[in-house]
């Protein structure tokens, strides 16, 4: 298991780690990146923004499960 972390996707018997890399691979493979380069860039921008928020302790966002 690369980096000893999940998620891991196995492609042709080879493990691939890093969730963003896996997501981008699958999006390209199954034609989910939009109709042109602009759409693909917007997809990348959204993924990178979510990663920035995650790295910044969710950017101050909190999920509450009660009062």
From TrEMBL:
Reactions listed under catalytic activity: RX + glutathione = an S-substituted glutathione + a halide anion + H(+)
Keyword list, A-Z: Transferase
InterPro entries: Glutathione_S-Trfase_N, GST_superfamily, Thioredoxin-like_sf
Superkingdom classification of source: Eukaryota
An MF annotation (GO) of this entry: glutathione transferase activity
Entries under PROSITE patterns matching the protein: GST_NTER
Annotated GST N-terminal domain residues: 1-34
Family to which this protein belongs: Belongs to the GST superfamily. Sigma family.
Protein name (record): glutathione transferase
Species this chain originates from: Bombus vosnesenskii
Phylogenetic classification of the source organism: Eukaryota, Metazoa, Ecdysozoa, Arthropoda, Hexapoda
């Amino acid at each position: 298991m690369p980096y000893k972390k999940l998620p891991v996707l196995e492609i042709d018997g080879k493990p691939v780690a890093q969730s963003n890399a896996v997501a981008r691979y699958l999006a390209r493979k199954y034609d989910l990146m939009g109709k042109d380069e602009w759409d693909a860039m917007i997809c990348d921008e959204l993924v990178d923004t979510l990663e920035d928020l995650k790295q910044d302790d969710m950017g101050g966002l909190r999920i509450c499960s009660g009062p």
